[in-house]
Amino acid sequence: MDTRHLRAFVAVAEELHFSRAADRLGVSQPQLSQQIRRLERELNATLFDRSTRSVHLTDAGAAALDPARALLRDADAVRHAALVGRSEVFGKVSIGYAGASSRELLPRLARAVRTEHPGIELVLQSLVYGGTAPAQVAAGTVDIGFSRLPVRRSDVNSRVFVHERVVVALPADHPLAAGTAVRVEDLADEPFVTFPATQGSTVRDAMMRITAAHGFTPRILQEAPDSYAILGLVAAGIGVTITVSSVQHIATPGLVYRDLAGPPMHLAAVIVWRKNENSAAVNAVLEAMEEIIPTPEISPPHVLM
Q: Can you give the residue ranges of the HTH lysR-type domain (predicted)?
């Protein structure tokens, strides 16, 4: 029995939607339908009742679902055992990530670890806000975390992997969007959209320090939990925000980014890990990170600390 057909069956059974199941598996919908038909022929049973509007498991499909899941778990166990058998290092390593600067690195890291250390299983955990990563690393909730300077805990190590430029995001029709750069003091009377104050956002903390250095406290009109929501609100004309260059791939209609006038300011994104003895698997992942995202040789002159 082809495990690809079983995975197709389980995906459709869980999604009850062929298009969503195809997206989940990374195959075309006709290919997925063909795999289901082949499994049904092999089992001599109809697994789904299909119509143009809905998909439902038949009695045979419902009865086959748990055994199919069990077979796939066994197949995954065989594959993992074979990988570990030829790997010098094995174990689980949990990585806490937040923000665009770390998200884009995860596929490269996963590929490198799988190639060099197939016995290591990466467990990826979204932290929402990078400022919480040092505490979670220290507490053992995650093994390695992505955060930003300053890291004020003495029980974790950290190293810089990228410097992110501080920028301002504005509605496209805003008068300040007409220029190539915006003076911070010109934002003093603007409504702001930003992250919640109590959640550990390093970007919000940087915004408050920058505005304070220019003699004002921003008038925060709306808080939102992530950069996508914040930038969507900015595009809708709710307010402006100070953010970092790593989110500039978010190209929402009605949204523009501008540099801040004066010498460029940067936030330093860092990797954090525990100071006490770490497992061989954690050390192997840290080494892989050093190869993929080494510490920059030169730091820009204006890094917010």
A: 1-58
For 47, the 3-state DSSP assignment is: coil
Number of Cβ within 10 Å of residue 43's Cβ equals 15
C-alpha to C-alpha distance for 275 and 252, rounded to whole angstroms: 41
Q: What is the pLDDT of residues 109-148, one digit of tens each?
A: 998 988 888 888 899 888 877 888 999 999 999 999 999 8
8-state DSSP, 294: P
Note the CATH architecture for domain 3-83.
Orthogonal Bundle (1.10)
Residue segments in the chain with a per-residue pLDDT below the cut of 70: 81, 83-87, 100-101, 199
Residue 285 to residue 238: CA distance in whole angstroms: 42
Helix (H, G, I), strand (E, B) or coil at 191: strand
Please state, as a whole number, how many other Cβ atoms lie within 10 Å of the Cβ of residue 173: 10
Note the CATH architecture for domain 163-266: 3-Layer(aba) Sandwich (3.40)
Domain boundaries, the chain: 3-83, 91-161+268-292, 163-266
CA distances from 32 to 67, 86, 120 (A): 20, 33, 30
Token readout for 209 is 């320090």
Domains 91-161+268-292 and 163-266 share a fold: yes
Rg (CA), the chain: 24
- Report the C-alpha gap between 93 and 103 in whole angstroms: 17
Q: CATH second-level architecture of 91-161+268-292?
A: 3-Layer(aba) Sandwich (3.40)
Please report, in angstroms and rounded to a whole number, the separation of the first and last CA atoms in the chain.
58
Give the containing element (helix H, strand E) for 264.
none
For residues 134 and 274, what is the distance between their CA atoms, to the nearest angstrom?
9
Q: What does the alpha-carbon distance between residue 185 and residue 210 come to, in Å, rounded to a whole number?
A: 10
